[in-house]
Amino acid sequence: MAEPLKIINGNYTYADYVKWPEDERWELIDGTAYMSVAPSRRHQEVQVELLRQISNYLLDKPCKVYGSPFDVRLAEEGEDDEKVKDVVQPDITVICDKSKLDDRGCKGSPDLIMEIVSPSTAFMDYIKKLSLYEKKQVKEYWIVHPIDEIVMVYKLNENKKYGRPEIYSKEDNVKVGIFEDLIICLKKVFEE
User: Fold this and answer.
1) Which pairing describes strands 140-145 and 112-116: parallel, antiparallel, or unpaired?
2) pLDDT tens, 119-155?
3) Which residues touch 111 (CB under 8 Å, ≥6 apart)?
4) Centroid of chain to Cα 171
5) pLDDT tens digits, residue range 165-187?
6) Shortest CA distance to 191 belongs to which of 39, 94, 52, 58?
7) Which residues form a coiled coil (predicted)?
């Protein structure tokens, strides 16, 4: 399991983040900066297919879907942008509350986040981001593993915690929990 390309411990905020080079993909988790490498071709194929299925479903619906790079500022309620210490660029983000959207991206917790695992991001996706998204009350978090062709789905329970994940394979169709009738066909997602 490889670490992200670069980790810089510190007490960084969104005010620092916006000054960094735009051609580098940085994220902040609790003030520590993480830089990721460009995603692989396979990663991109999986992301595009997930985006296609979700986008088609959301036609004429109020929720919006975004692919990375798209800044999600996981701010505390009322927190000024400049002081936010958690800024991520999920592979896929779904937001149903339009008041959270602005020209900079999303401020607040999205309804659904999907991360596609790469060797350089596994530690982040399975450990750091899982904990962060639970803490920030992201309703549903998918970890998509293109090599193993599995998906792990975490949903907030009545105690506002992620329980055990639901695990799906390439042969499964998966109902997206935040919607009544969106079914993701994993066979198409993992098709090469």
Assistant:
1) parallel
2) 888 989 999 999 999 999 999 999 999 999 999 999 9
3) 63, 94, 95, 96, 97, 138, 139, 140, 178
4) 23
5) 999 999 999 999 999 999 999 99
6) 52
7) none
Show Cβ contacts of residue 148 under 8 Å, excluding neighbours closer than 6 positions.
none
Report the run of H or E that residue 133 belongs to, with start and end. helix 129-135
> Could you identify the residue written with the tokens 């962060």?
132
Cβ of 141: how many Cβ atoms within 10 Å? 24
Contact 107, 78 (CB under 8 A): no
62 burial level (CB within 10 Å; 0-12, 13-18, 19+):
exposed
Tokens of 43: 């990663």
Contact 74, 86 (CB under 8 A): yes
